[in-house]
Amino acid sequence: MEGPEQPPDPTAAPTAEPEMPPEVVAQSLGEYLRSWMVRARSGENRVLPVVAGLIMITVVFEIISPHHVFLSAGNLVNLFQQSAVFMVLAMAESFALLLGEIDLSVGYVAAVGGVIGVQLVQPATTNWPWWAAIIVALLACALIGALQGTLVARFKLPSFVVTLAGLLIFNGLMLLLLLLGPFSGYPSLSGRSTNLHVLYNLMWGNIDPVASWVAMAVIVAGLSFLMWRRDSRRRRSGLVAPPASVTVVKIAALAIVSVAVVAICNINRANIGVVEGVPWVIPIVLAVVGAWSLLLQRTRYGRYVYAIGGNAEAARRAGVDVAMVRTVAFVLCSFTAGIGGLLYASYLGGMSNNVNGGQLVLFAVAAAVIGGTSLFGGRGRMMDGLLGGLVIGGIYNGMYLLGLQVQWEFIVTGFVLLAAIAIDALSRREATRATA
Amino acid sequence: MAQVAPEVKVAEEPLLKVRGLDKHFGPVQALSKVDLDLPAGQVTGLCGDNGAGKSVLTKCIAGIHQPDAGQIFWEGRPVEIRSARDASRLGIETVYQDLALADNLDIVQNMFLGRERVRRGFLDEDEMERAAAATLASLRVTTVRSIRQPVATLSGGQRQSVAVAKAVMWNSKLVILDEPTAALGVMQTQMVLDLVKRLRDHGVAVMVISHNLNDVFEVADRIAVLYLGRMVAQDKASAFDRQSVVEYMTTGTVGRAPVET
Ligand SMILES: Nc1ncnc2c1ncn2[C@@H]1O[C@H](COP(=O)(O)OP(=O)(O)OP(=O)(O)O)[C@@H](O)[C@H]1O
Ligand SMILES: [Mg+2]
Predict the structure, then answer these.
(1) In a designed cystine with A296, which of A302, A312, A331, B94 is the match (CB 3.0 to 4.6 A)?
(2) What's B192's domain CATH number?
(3) pLDDT of A330 strictly over 90
(4) Residue A355, C-beta contacts closer than 8 angstroms, at least 6 positions apart
């Protein structure tokens, strides 16, 4: 029952081909790579520039850092720890960016969450158990998100202005909360209580090296199995799927990166004594990435976030409760910021009025955009925050090693952000030209 | 039509009946006292000049705009269509003039937007991809390279095809097409018109808005003409000729008056 040959579609856009995502059309590994490169050159593929940037940062700082310490195990672990805060805040910001909104308050919302957590576990005052302190800190942040989200989604106030006001309000709130208790504005996590220890160990605690290896092996094997099963099932039933070789390469890349990270973390990084093992902050960040990626890529809610970011009117006409999706996104944004704030408090070993939430939010936006999340909405993944956070962390760390003042770090980060936004705008222009 | 038995008369109650619909945007009276009948198993061609109110009328029926006054009857019962979801629950699907596709989503994601299939809390991508592929194949939309490509990479005609496929996938009772052939080449126009006829043969009520009178006369069983927000003519297609439709569209009346509304 073969019909006559379909004549070519006269209205088909001749330029459509190069912009096609490789996973959609490539039949072999070679084709996949080729179409990946084409997209990278036109600004469509955002992973390649970030990875190239990371390699450049690594090479440059390794060469010019004193005694070539950049690539030492101690410094690399330190780099992961510094980047973790940027990564989590970037993921928080992604919820706003994907909708085409912005949240300028994430820095101080994070700080408020951090202060609440640190204050509640103080043995001299409330002495709450660590888990209760964490839950209350995160719920407080979620509540902040609900308030800001309601103003944006229901009352249709511009998110820029609402969260700019939030930036000021929560800066003030952070200072007020800091003054509570007999700590003269500097509640700290040092001390002998278990609850203090747990919060401190979010960033500084390490997993036993053997346990690190076992956990890594189990996770990588599990993920590889799921990836392989999914791709091969789709190939078998004739659905769109990458060729088997591409699946293998992806699994290999995952395994190599995981082994490298665990190996580096398991090198003794202390000058005297033993400090080794994967810091807890790494599985914490990975859990956030995993949970939010699952939410965004595999659930209805996530689909609606992308749809609204791409075309809010289309989503509305499709029956999506746009205001609800928007409000929840702001809740998730502030909630995630709270996680970042607790990690930051742990990193600093306490909280103080030196915390600069205004700078944190800029780094969060920069990390997300550098990683490939679009400021115009509808494009980006949680993984982008991970890569972008690593770039920001790398610059921050490298400049610190060089003994450069903080002003240079600002300037370099600013230029990197400009470059990322230029790529973002360029790829957007390409995309609109293709459809025009 | 001369000797209709009473029970046939009941069956002839139009699927959708609009009575006295008013809609204004600020000072602009987009619709005033509009009456419209859309019977099942028939194609109604809606004509009118630019700005006559065709798209607004469509959106009032589809739940996008709320009318200021008037009543809509669905299968004889008065209904209020407050949202797109209300409309699709009744069985009304619309292809909008401005398409309403999300460029960043792929074809499958767009076709299922708002009605995703879910298994154990997670999206059932395989099932959705299969269903979308089957629908596109049945409409002979074969020019897209992959149904997983973002809609941004499609040509105008391909986007139109996706929008139409999206609307007909749901076993709807009423399909409204606002300028479905405006961006299409000759082949694809014919494809859409054939599709419209196929829907009618399945007993679906179809309303087609078009500026192209050739298209209207090819598929329409009934014709309705809007002029400056008023319904100035509405009858079976054979009661009109090209000349009279143009006159209604441009002047709101017709000198020779072949039809009474
Ligand atoms: N959302 C809106 N806000 C304000 N005015 C509107 C809106 N939508 C439509 N109008 C006005 O209502 C009138 C009817 O517009 P409509 O889009 O229905 O025209 P149309 O018959 O579809 O024309 P076309 O053939 O150009 O598509 C126009 O005067 C238009 O400016
Ligand atoms: Mg119109």
Answers:
(1) A302
(2) 3.40.50.300
(3) yes
(4) A111, A114, A174, A344, A348
